[in-house]
Write a structure and sequence with these properties.
Number of helices: 4
Mean pLDDT: 87
Length: 174
């Protein structure tokens, strides 16, 4: 694989990550409008929950494909070195993003859905000190934190993928 191929793969990775970050930021700007304009916070919450679930799956695709496109041959090429290079640091951030995708889609989102199903009424009808309301608020806060950290990781990975080392002609790529 030549340097031009690596640059194309890096551009594809950056594009995937920026597209997901844009969709996530768009949702972040749209969500408050949903809660302000829709007649019920419960309906707005259900719509927002469906959107977050889809963004979770899109995150798996964006982070997964970006990592596979830019990571494979470079990781093996850098394994010969004893230093922590840019590829290993980029890979660590990529793995953190995938762990956050797993936490969001397999732990936090199902927890929110279970609480909403158990309540069977709009969240805002519960008293602030009620245990289900407190559990929902805690899970929702964690979901928001994971969501925005993934946006930052997507932008960071997209911005630094072009800095990854490119094996020179004649060097083994893998």
């Amino acid at each position: 694989m030549n340097a031009r191929s690596f640059r194309r793969l890096d551009l594809a990775s950056a594009t995937l990550l920026v597209l997901w970050a844009g969709a996530a930021l768009g949702f972040g700007l749209l969500a408050p409008l949903l809660f302000r304009e829709l007649p019920s916070r419960d309906v707005a919450g259900r719509i927002a929950g469906l959107m977050v679930a889809r963004l979770d799956w899109a995150a798996w695709g964006a982070f997964g494909l970006a990592g596979l496109l830019s990571w494979g041959a470079r990781w093996l090429a850098e394994m010969k070195e004893d230093v922590i290079g840019p590829l290993r640091l980029w890979s660590a951030a990529w793995l953190v993003a995938l762990v956050m995708c797993l936490a969001s889609s397999a732990v936090v989102t199902p927890k929110i859905q279970d609480i909403r199903a158990r309540i069977g009424a709009p969240i805002e009808t519960l008293a602030p000190g009620q245990p289900d309301r407190m559990a929902y608020d805690k899970a929702h806060g964690l979901s928001r934190q994971i969501f925005f950290l993934r946006i930052l990781l997507a932008l960071g990975l997209a911005g630094t993928v072009g800095l990854l080392p490119i094996p020179q002609e004649g060097e083994p790529a893998a």
